C-alpha cells in the first residue's frame, strides 16, 4: 500500500537502524531504474529477509529444545551423583563390616564344629543372604558409577550442541539484520513519487494474480471452519494492526509463522513454529478445499505463510515495516495449503499454484 511503503521510506531516510549489522557491499541503488525493476528488487530483498528469518526462527526453536535437553541431563546427572554418594556410603559400611569380621571362623568351619548342624545351616543361609545383599550393593555402586559417567558425557555433548546452536543463531540474526539494512537502503534512495508508483504497481500485480487464480477455478466455495479453525481465525483477527517483527511470536508483534503458530496454539492445536516446518509436517490440501483456519504457504522454499479467512482472502503478517492485515490470497506466489486440525481430504499431495 502507498502509505505503508511511504512509512518505510521515511523511516529508512531518518535512521539507518544503528542496531543492524552492516549490509554486504552491493551496488548503490539507481533511482533511475524502471518502477518494475525497483519492485522486483524490493520483493527479492523482502524474500531474502524472510528466508533469513525462517532460518533464525528454526535455529531459535532448536536452541530452545537443546536448552531443555541440557537442563534435563543436568538434573539427571545431579540425581545420579546423589545416588552414587549413597552407594559409596553403603560400600563403606560394607568394607568396615568385612574388616571387623575378618578374624571370624569361616561358615564351613563353623558347620563342622557346630553341635547343632541345622542351626549352623540356618546361620549359613543368613550369611549367604548377607553376601548376596553385599554383592548387590557393589553391583549398584558399579552401575551408578557407569550411569554417572554416561550422563556426564551426554551433558557435555548437549552443552557443546547448545553452544554451536547459539553461534548459528547469532549468524542467522546477523543475516536478517543485513538483509533488513539492504531493504532500508533501497527505500531510502527512492523519491515519494517512486514510492507511490511502487505501491500502485504492487497493488495492480496482486489484483492480476488474484483474478487469474479465481478464474482458473483453483478456489472452490468456502467451507465452514472446524471449531479449532474458528478459534484460530478469531485469535488472528484480534492481532490486526500489530507490527511485523522478525522472530516475533506476539503478543506485541509477529512474523508470518509466529502469527499462525500462536493462533493455532491458542486454538488448542499446537503446530510447528516455522512456515517450512508447517508445510513439511501438516497435511496438504488442494486450494479448492480451503476452509477458514487453513494455512496458505508461499514461495518454492515455503518461506511465507498466511491464514485463510474465506472469500479468497488471508490474514497475515506480511513483511518488515507492515502490520498484520487482510490480503488477497494471491498477494505472494502460492505454493500450496495445509490443514493443521485434520487429515487432508484427498491425500497428502500439495496443490501448487504459480503466480
Keywords for this entry:
355 residues, alpha+beta, Helix Hairpins, endopeptidase fold (from Nostoc punctiforme), 2 domains, 6-stranded antiparallel sheet, 60% helix, disordered C terminus
Report on the structure:
The protein has 355 residues and is α+β, with helices and mostly antiparallel strands. It folds into two domains: 1-15 and 33-207, Helix Hairpins; 216-338, endopeptidase fold (from Nostoc punctiforme). It is 60% helix and 7% strand. It has eight helices and six strands. It has a six-stranded antiparallel β-sheet with strand order 1-6-2-3-4-5. A hairpin with a 5-residue loop joins strand 2 (295-298) and strand 3. Helix 2 (35-100) packs across helix 5. The radius of gyration is 33 Å and the shape is elongated. The two termini are 19 Å apart. The model is unreliable at 1-27 and 346-355 (pLDDT under 50).
Amino acid at each position: 500500500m502507498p502509505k505503508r511503503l511511504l512509512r518505510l521510506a521515511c523511516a529508512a531516510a531518518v535512521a539507518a537502524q544503528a542496531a543492524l549489522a552492516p549490509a554486504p557491499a552491493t551496488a548503490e541503488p539507481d533511482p533511475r531504474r524502471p518502477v518494475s525493476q525497483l519492485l522486483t528488487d524490493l520483493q527479492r530483498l523482502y524474500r531474502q529477509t524472510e528466508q533469513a528469518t525462517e532460518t533464525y526462527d528454526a535455529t531459535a526453536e532448536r536452541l530452545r529444545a537443546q536448552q531443555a535437553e541440557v537442563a534435563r541431563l543436568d538434573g539427571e546427572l545431579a540425581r545420579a551423583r546423589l545416588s552414587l554418594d549413597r552407594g559409596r556410603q553403603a560400600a563403606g559400611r560394607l568394607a568396615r563390616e568385612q574388616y571387623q569380621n575378618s578374624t571370624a571362623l569361616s561358615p564351613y568351619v563353623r558347620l563342622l564344629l557346630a553341635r547343632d548342624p541345622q542351626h549352623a545351616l540356618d546361620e549359613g543361609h543368613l550369611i549367604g543372604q548377607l553376601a548376596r545383599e553385599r554383592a548387590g550393593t557393589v553391583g549398584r555402586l558399579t552401575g551408578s558409577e557407569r550411569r554417572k559417567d554416561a550422563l556426564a558425557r551426554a551433558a557435555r555433548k548437549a552443552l557443546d550442541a547448545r553452544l554451536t546452536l547459539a553461534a548459528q543463531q547469532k549468524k542467522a540474526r546477523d543475516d536478517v539484520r543485513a538483509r533488513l539494512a539492504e531493504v532500508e537502503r533501497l527505500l531510502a534512495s527512492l523519491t515519494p513519487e517512486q514510492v507511490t508508483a511502487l505501491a500502485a504497481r504492487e497493488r495492480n500485480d496482486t489484483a492480476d494474480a488474484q483474478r487469474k487464480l479465481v478464474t482458473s477455478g483453483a478456489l472452490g466455495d468456502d467451507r465452514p471452519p472446524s471449531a479449532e479453525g474458528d478459534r484460530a481465525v478469531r485469535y488472528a483477527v484480534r492481532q490486526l494492526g500489530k507490527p511485523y517483527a522478525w522472530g516475533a511470536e506476539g503478543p506485541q508483534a509477529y512474523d508470518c509463522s509466529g502469527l499462525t503458530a500462536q493462533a493455532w496454539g491458542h486454538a488448542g492445536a499446537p503446530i510447528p513454529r516455522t512456515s517450512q516446518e508447517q508445510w513439511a509436517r501438516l497435511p496438504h490440501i488442494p486450494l479448492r478445499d480451503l476452509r477458514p483456519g487453513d494455512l496458505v504457504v508461499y514461495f518454492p522454499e515455503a518461506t511465507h505463510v498466511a491464514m485463510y479467512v474465506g472469500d479468497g482472502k488471508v490474514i497475515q503478517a506480511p513483511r518488515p515495516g507492515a502490520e498484520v492485515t487482510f490480503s488477497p490470497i494471491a498477494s505472494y506466489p502460492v505454493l500450496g495449503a495445509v490443514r493443521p486440525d485434520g487429515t487432508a481430504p484427498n491425500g497428502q499431495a500439495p496443490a501448487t499454484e504459480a503466480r
